[in-house]
Design goal:
The termini are far apart. The longest helix has 17 residues. This protein has 163 residues and is an alpha/beta fold. The protein has a five-stranded parallel β-sheet with strand order 2-1-3-4-5, with helices on both faces. The structure holds 5-O-phosphono-beta-D-ribofuranose (RP5). The site of 5-O-phosphono-beta-D-ribofuranose has 11 residues, from loops.
């Protein structure tokens, strides 16, 4: 059986519930994924080892999710040349603004594609991953097109708010 295409890494088990929309959307696209809890701050050596293992197993794209001083996506980007999508999580007393700044403000040369804070960002991380993988995978490209068609079909045109 082929290994996962996408590796989702979060900093704590407490992050997993926010990531459900990410996992569901990846499943919807038929993208094989695996998830790990590895803190960039508490388990730096394990994170380094995991990225090397994941690359060797064929992972093509990493999604990193963390709250507070959210260095995990940036550390992932320092360890791999593959695309990294960062999800800032909103667990802290600053409502995720702390994580957003940490994830989005990467120095030049170490890119992290940063999505929205929290569960909306978790879903968009999966949609963005699908669009990136679709460039080289026609089956995923078909599912991206189908999702966009289905989403645009949900638009309500010319509604009467008084009705
Ligand atoms: C971050 O600190 C984690 O990603 C999590 O969002 C936050 C709190 O972690 P725990 O104290 O719940 O382990 O590293």
């Amino acid at each position: 059986m082929p290994g996962p295409t996408v590796a989702v890494v979060c900093g704590s088990r407490s992050d997993l519930s926010t990531l459900k929309g990410c996992f569901d959307a990846l499943d919807g696209y038929g993208i094989a994924w695996e998830a790990s809890v590895i803190s960039a701050h508490r388990q730096a050596d394990a994170l380094h080892a995991y990225v090397a293992e994941a690359e060797a197993a064929g992972v093509r794209l990493f999604i990193g999710a963390a709250g507070l001083a959210a260095h995990l996506p940036g550390v992932l980007a320092s360890l791999t040349a593959r695309p990294v999508i960062g999800i800032p999580l909103d667990g802290g007393s600053l409502g995720g603004a702390d994580a957003l700044y940490a994830v989005v403000q990467m120095p030049p040369g170490v890119p992290v594609a940063t999505v929205a804070i929290g569960s909306a960002g978790a879903k968009n991380a999966a949609h963005l991953a699908a669009r990136i993988l679709a460039l080289a995978d026609p089956a995923v490209a078909d599912r991206v097109a189908a999702f966009r068609d289905e989403q645009s079909g949900r638009a309500e045109l010319r509604i009467d708010p008084r009705a």
